[in-house]
Design brief:
mainly alpha
């Protein structure tokens, strides 16, 4: 990068964080002081587009360069399928792992749904009058999250993907290498969410094990794992829509396993069963680390083989 491009990269972070944190704080204040959930949700959506806006301002206004994002629909089908269904697979694996570790926390009594409906009806009334049970809730919301939600959620997710995976990650990897770049990118992405977590308990709530420090740290671990897989999808396809679909799919499915615990066990959300818990994230984390190490090993072999290839070619030309 040239000196001005380095300045632009720093400016990107200033804009992406500054605007997003203003939106986050404003939305949280609307929720906490005015009980305005609609304004809070609008602020969250605006937050997701701040990285995209930062890229446009830096590339088009400050540097006067092309944005450099892969908009064309391309890439092998298996990566599109992985983006669409992969988050559901990791969510399932994470929940299975969590309940294997803590089997006593698995609850089919519908207590979470009773609390979600305000406690005005018991589990039997929910089933008889509304037809709502733990199983029906999982099936209905799970099918929607897997089949339709990725296509809907990818549009707000695109605002983040353009900034984080399309713009930030190629530059971090070029500067710090594959593993360190993905580690740093995950931490940056995680910290970007911190005001929401500290002010309104985004993701884990406000009263959980180790709050608030453990949640902030675990969230960065989750963001490293997810950032790695989203970055890999963009690497393999060159199409920003693919990680946007995966991001949207993850947002749709991630909260579903909480219906399988009691409201009291939400105290342990920082551990699971949602894939953002320290235990439930392990399958996704293992795949992310494994694929990164595999890439590093393959790249290392290519580098060690290159001199021999060049030497052979040179000898042939001298003959």
């Amino acid at each position: 990068m040239s000196a001005k491009e380095k300045q632009g990269f720093s400016l990107y972070f200033l804009i992406a964080f500054g605007l997003a944190w203003l939106c986050q704080v404003g939305g949280c204040m609307a929720l906490l002081q005015q009980k305005n959930a609609v304004l809070y949700q609008l602020a969250l959506i605006a937050t997701m587009f701040c990285p995209l806006l930062a890229v446009l301002l830096v590339q088009k206004v400050f540097l006067r360069q092309p944005v450099g994002i892969g908009w064309e629909v391309q890439g092998k089908r298996r990566f599109w399928l992985a983006a669409w269904f992969g988050p559901a697979v990791f969510t399932l694996l994470g929940a299975v792992l969590y309940f294997a570790v803590f089997p006593s926390r698995l609850d089919f009594s519908c207590s979470w749904l009773v609390a979600a409906y305000g406690g005005e009806m018991d589990a039997q009334t929910l089933r008889s009058e509304l037809g709502v049970s733990t199983l029906s809730y999982l099936l209905q919301n799970g099918l929607f999250a897997v089949i339709l939600a990725p296509a809907i959620n990818m549009f707000p997710a695109l605002g983040e993907e353009v900034g984080w995976r399309g713009y930030m990650m190629p530059r971090l990897k070029a500067r710090f290498g594959l593993l360190n770049g993905r580690l740093l990118g995950g931490v940056v992405w995680g910290v970007w969410h911190w005001p929401l977590m500290l002010l309104v308990g985004y993701e884990y709530g406000t009263n959980y094990l180790g709050a608030p420090v453990l949640g902030l740290v675990v969230w960065c671990v989750v963001c490293f794992a997810l950032n790695t897989l989203l970055d890999l999808l963009y690497e393999k396809t060159g199409c920003i829509w693919v990680p946007a679909i995966a991001h949207g799919a993850f947002n749709a499915i991630a909260a579903l396993p909480q219906v399988l615990i009691t409201p009291a066990d939400a105290y342990y959300n920082v551990l699971g069963p949602m894939p953002i818990g320290l235990i439930s994230v392990l399958p996704m984390l293992a795949v992310a680390v494994g694929l990164t190490l595999h890439q590093m090993n393959r790249n290392s072999k290519k580098k060690t083989q290159s001199p021999a290839v060049r030497s052979t070619a040179g000898d042939f030309l001298r003959l």
